[in-house]
Amino acid sequence: NAGVTQTPKFRVLKTGQSMTLLCAQDMNHEYMYWYRQDPGMGLRLIHYSVGEGTTAKGEVPDGYNVSRLKKQNFLLGLESAAPSQTSVYFCATSPTGGFYEQYFGPGTRLTVT
Amino acid sequence: GEDVEQSLFLSVREGDSSVINCTYTDSSSTYLYWYKQEPGAGLQLLTYIFSNMDMKQDQRLTVLLNKKDKHLSLRIADTQTGDSAIYFCAESPNTGFQKLVFGTGTRLLVSP
């Protein structure tokens, strides 16, 4: 089992360009999350999904859109990239239930110049 | 509001004990967690404690919880160079969906 995978691993964008980050999981988990990690700020939740066809805003959703058309995939889109979106992006999944262990992908390092 | 705070950096010598501290704000969290992030990787669950416990021991790891002061700590005994990583504490506020609020992370550097 691959667990949680993210594509791509690295990307450099120019300001104003768009891109989509893909998160794929083979654990049949209902919940999926997108975080960004910035130095000294920990992880901040961008968007999340509680099941196929559902999405919701997290703590820092502005400038990002998401889609969950299939249970196993969660896409994060940047329509018009800005330098402030330079960050490391992590996808995570979790099963339903009272214990909130989240399983993380390896991350995507994005630089916007 | 939800806020989890940690010191940013800790440096210890190999063989010493490390203590990483965390303060949280939401007393409704059923569990509190410690995650570990090794260089270039995502986070992995290291250990956790149920909110009605004061202490949990797991091999070299000891988690202490002071609910009155909303203070959580992680002690690593006999710290090794392989323990060098970023350690995040996280709370799980009762918001109606499964959400973790992470602290800023503490970078632990273990020198030989």
**How large is the count of helical segments of chain A?**
0
| Oligomeric nature of the chains | heterodimer
Helix/strand-derived category of chain B reads mainly beta
Our estimate of the beta-strand percent of chain A is over 45%
- Using DSSP, what is the number of strands of chain A? 11
Low-confidence sequence ranges of chain B: none
What is the typical, i.e. mean, pLDDT of chain A? 93
**What integer value in Å does the Rg of chain A equal?**
13 Å
Helix/strand structural class of chain A: mainly beta
* SSE succession of chain A: EEEEEEEEEEE
Q: Most extensive interface: pair and counts?
A: A-B, 24 and 22 residues
The radius of gyration computed from the alpha-carbon positions of chain B, rounded to a whole number of angstroms, is: 14 Å
Low-confidence stretches of chain A: none
Can you offer a commentary on this structure?
The complex is a heterodimer of chains A (113) and B (112). By secondary structure, chain A is an all-beta fold. Chain A contains no helices and eleven strands. In chain A, strands 2, 4, 5, 6, 9, 10 and 11 form a seven-stranded mixed β-sheet that branches. In chain A, strand 7 and strand 8 (73-78) form a beta hairpin. Chain A is globular and about 40 Å long. Chain B is mostly beta strands. Chain B is 0% helix and 53% strand. Chain B contains no helices and eleven strands. In chain B, the strands form two sheets. In chain B, strands 2, 4, 5, 9, 10 and 11 form a six-stranded mixed β-sheet that branches. In chain B, strand 4 (31-37) and strand 5 form a beta hairpin. Chain B is globular, with a radius of gyration of 14 Å. The termini of chain B are far apart. The model of chain B has no long low-confidence stretch (mean pLDDT 91). Chain A binds chain B through residues 4, 31, 35, 40-43, 45, 48, 50, 56, 90, 92, 94, 96, 98-102, 104-107, and chain B through 4, 8, 30-31, 33, 40-45, 48, 88, 92, 97-100, 102-105.
